[in-house]
Design goal:
The complex is a heterodimer of chains A (428) and B (310). Chain A has 2 helices and 34 strands. Chain A is mostly beta strands and 428 residues long. Chain A has 2 domains: 290 residues, Neuraminidase; 107 residues, Sandwich (Jelly Rolls). The longest helix of chain A has 8 residues. By secondary structure, chain B is mainly β. Chain B folds into 2 domains: 33 residues, no CATH class; 240 residues, Jelly Rolls (Sandwich), CATH 2.60.120.200. In chain B, 3% of the residues lie in helices and 40% in strands. The longest helix of chain B has 8 residues. The chains are: A mainly beta (428), B mainly beta (310). Chains A and B meet through strand 4, strand 24, strand 25, strand 26 and strand 27 of A and strand 1, strand 2, strand 3 and strand 4 of B.
Chain lengths: 428, 310
Amino acid sequence: MANITEWPWPRMFITPYGLFAIMKVEEETTYYIIEANYDGANWSWFLAAFLNNVGIINYVDFADFGPFYVLSIVNTLGQVYTYYRDTTASTETLCLVAQDAPAFGTACNFRGQLIGGNISSDDAPWDSLTSRSIVWSAIGNAELDPGTNVMAGFSTLLLDSVSSEVPIIKRVMPLGRQVAVYSDSGVLMLSPSVQGPSYTLGQELVQIAGVRSGNHIAGDRLVQGLIDLENKFWVIEAGGKIGEIGYQEFIAPIVEHENETIVSYLEKDRTFYISNGVDCLVINQYGAYKCHQLVSSVLRTPSGMLLGTWDTTDDETAYISTDSMDFGSRGIKSLESVTVDFTADGDYLAYVGADFKYDGRANFVRFRDVLCNPEGEAGLHVAAANFRLRFTLSDYTNAELRYLLANIKYSDQRYKRGTVPGQLEVGR
Amino acid sequence: MREFGHLISKSLRLGLRAYPNPSPGEEQLVECYNLRPSQTNLIGHERIGTIHFPTITLSTLLDDLRIYYKLDETSGTFQDSFGVAHMSQAIPDSEDETLMASVTGIISKAAYTRQRNAAGSAEGARAPYVAALNLNNTSFTINIWCKWSDKAYPALGYPIYRKREIFNANTNYEWGLRWYGNSEGAFGFRFERGNGTNSITDTIDASVDIHEDTWYMVTVTYDLLTTTLYVRVSNATDGFEADSGFSTTVSTMPNGTEPLILANQGHTAEGAINFQYDEFGIWSRVLTLAERQTLWNDGAGITYPFILGI
């Protein structure tokens, strides 16, 4: 049963030290901040805060130091709020304490150091800082004033304005030995630099367009994925390796929907869930697929259970469509039948179909789905230049697909020069 | 067999390979196969389990709440937990008048002040006027917890809260509650309705026997339909004041823009009196008996956001 009550809430947040949940009161701009614990069988909850004065929350960050954690919030108006809890000193419920000297919209624990980005404060020495600034604490404590501890400091980052008058830092996240800073004007990697008693963070620009939202980034200390301003998906690894994954043709409709798009990360298979509560694209190290679970957060328990917060489309159909194929010939050919080797549980119906087109400039036309016979074969008998094969199974539970086999009849030899495919002995 | 391409399908990464030797006009077999090394769940994805979140039960006390001060801040600046009518400490012209949460309250800390020892006017904390403070033409409930010690004859009384500018006696008086000495010299509570200019038109005395070092929950309700004003006092000795109370009929509260002031000290005093205030809220309706009982909570009180269970 799905547990999303109002997209994307509730959500779970996992840190190296614990679990946090944020629940929203339906149709109210009221949120519960909850510390969660799961013993393998039962959940226990500690109500840390009831927030009704932060507007509509857009994204949040937890910078967890074990006995002390910081919660940063950005609302849909771009206003930032920061709260903290000393778990040993404050044990009563609703004990989260607001922090405005300074407040920051994103925060992380970088090797025992609190890093905050997108700063707002009326208090010196942070009153000149802006949404493109960061602060950092001394190591092992939350002291942010460099006048009190020389290890603490602040900086305004070298971000060129692209999509806003003043660049806005959306997320700061630890990535290996660096801090990744994701803004709407680019991505920076910060590296610690110690010169004598002073400490600062060196800046290195990464060649990725910025991000629209703090919700468009997810990952851990080794791998992080993001949707850039052009709706491309990227993966950045600790050590600096950057990979353009793409999939913008699938991501764009999700991101452009009025619902906020949330990227969630699961360590296994480097899986990223991209969902807006209506559609969900899953990208892992093997490829991408869409699924019926519309995920706003996901985690794996120590016992291996995969849990999360999600809504559902209730469409549990398994569906595969290949990319466009011409089977090595530009002429018209006939797709006679498709054979499928698969297994699945329960009562299911399996169909094979195809999209086809004659003209490379035209759109694909949907050809009917044909029910497979018990042996897994279905006759289609459609002639065209390009095909996309489809395979549909009414229930994906424990379904396995081993191959699709297309039987093609090459009847059109106009574009053959010299030997025909058979004479080429394709595959030998 | 020759593999001649990989496809990134919409759903899976597939390989494509052709089977050999179709003669012209004959069928060629082209196979799409899955490259995923695991042979489990090749189609679709690993189903995600459900987290069963706790059920949090809220009281109906959140309904029609206008303002709420927990009075827990040690800074003397009191946040309106529900709205924006935040209070700041103002005119602390002597240490004795500093109003700040430095003592144990009915819940967490309580605002604490002492009566000044010299003549003059001062105040504890004030919230500048916001629309939420206007109780004109509406039913309402005002609830506050109070405690005092070092009893002395209250003379003209000490305002607990008042919607009136303090420093000029001619400023508009809208409404307020004060500690009050009745004709027998005992302490009680008096709610006052001003006329919107500079004088009081109606008073209602809750003449209860008040003891030192005891928390009292003083609930003022006004029903616009019946024009009935009630003052009910609950305390550790007599318990919860249910249906009874001190009532009178008055017309609606004045329509004004005066600030709300907590614990203003407007008069000469004799000796020192310690005042404590906690859990101060205003609603734009008459709270039901059950809701007032929830606020009382067997003498332990309840604070915003009035969570009954998790």
